[in-house]
TrEMBL record:
Reaction(s) catalysed by this chain's protein: 6-hydroxymethyl-7,8-dihydropterin + ATP = (7,8-dihydropterin-6-yl)methyl diphosphate + AMP + H(+)
Lineage, opening ranks: Bacteria, Bacillati, Actinomycetota, Actinomycetes, Streptosporangiales
GO molecular function terms noted in the UniProt entry: 2-amino-4-hydroxy-6-hydroxymethyldihydropteridine diphosphokinase activity; ATP binding; kinase activity
Keywords for this protein: ATP-binding, Folate biosynthesis, Kinase, Nucleotide-binding, Transferase
Pathway(s) the chain acts in: Cofactor biosynthesis; tetrahydrofolate biosynthesis; 2-amino-4-hydroxy-6-hydroxymethyl-7,8-dihydropteridine diphosphate from 7,8-dihydroneopterin triphosphate: step 4/4
Name of the protein this chain belongs to: 2-amino-4-hydroxy-6-hydroxymethyldihydropteridine diphosphokinase
UniProt-listed Pfam families: HPPK (PF01288)
NCBIfam families the record matches: folK
Domain of life: Bacteria
EC nos: 2.7.6.3
Keyword Magnesium (UniProt): no
SUPFAM superfamilies the record matches: 6-hydroxymethyl-7,8-dihydropterin pyrophosphokinase, HPPK (SSF55083)
Length: 167
């Protein structure tokens, strides 16, 4: 089944972190790379004032893994790359969200699918629509239609940055 994962970083070497995270996600069996979106520089949504912009991208994959196993994989990659020792409890350099996993719908606090905020997040929907123009959010409809109602001004293509498929 198809899995769509969203990657974000707003601290440290943001692009390097995204590329390393992508490579690690596909380092073990059960998850096959299909396509990475372009990279976008995006205004932070929510959170504390004065944050740096994020780099965001979306990865489309095929998986045989159950959604929870995929979440564990994503979390272990987050833990491997996701913290810098700037300060204790310092902010994360990497966030990986599961956006959709096939047509799985679940409403557990540990794993909500589709991701509960995807339909309002231009920083996910813009890259997703580029990587997968036919994408759909179960229960919400086509990515392209969801995007039509959103303000995309804070989401800027970084043509100079391109994620490679996993080594
Ligand atoms: N679809 C999902 N993808 C990733 N994590 C999820 C999902 N649904 C629920 N979670 C849970 O959310 C928690 C992650 O919280 P975290 O602090 O990373 O939120 P966040 O990524 O900062 O915020 P947001 O959820 O708004 O993107 C994890 O404990 C995880 O179990
Ligand atoms: N632009 C942008 N804003 C965010 C992001 C993100 O990835 N990009 N992630 C968040 C928590 O998951 C909160 N806000």
């Amino acid at each position: 089944m198809k899995a769509v994962l969203a990657l974000g970083s707003n601290l440290g070497s943001r692009f390097e972190t995204l590329q390393d995270a992508l490579d690690s996600l596909f380092d073990a069996p059960g998850l096959d790379f299909v396509r990475a979106s372009p990279v976008y520089e995006t205004d932070p949504v929510g959170g504390p004032e004065g944050q740096r912009p994020y780099l965001n991208a979306v990865v489309v994959a095929e998986t045989t893994l159950p959604p929870r196993t995929l979440l564990e994989r994503a979390q272990s990659v987050e833990n491997a790359f996701g913290r810098v020792r700037v300060e204790r409890w310092g902010p994360r350099t990497l966030d990986i969200d599961l956006i959709v996993v096939g047509d799985t719908v679940c409403d557990d606090p540990d794993l909500t699918l589709p991701h509960p905020l995807v339909h309002e997040r231009a920083f996910v929907l813009v890259p997703w629509s580029q990587a997968d123009p036919e994408g759909e959010v179960p229960g919400h409809g086509r990515v392209a239609d969801l995007l039509a109602g959103l303000d995309v001004e804070g989401v800027r293509l970084r043509e100079d940055l391109k994620l490679q498929g996993p080594d």
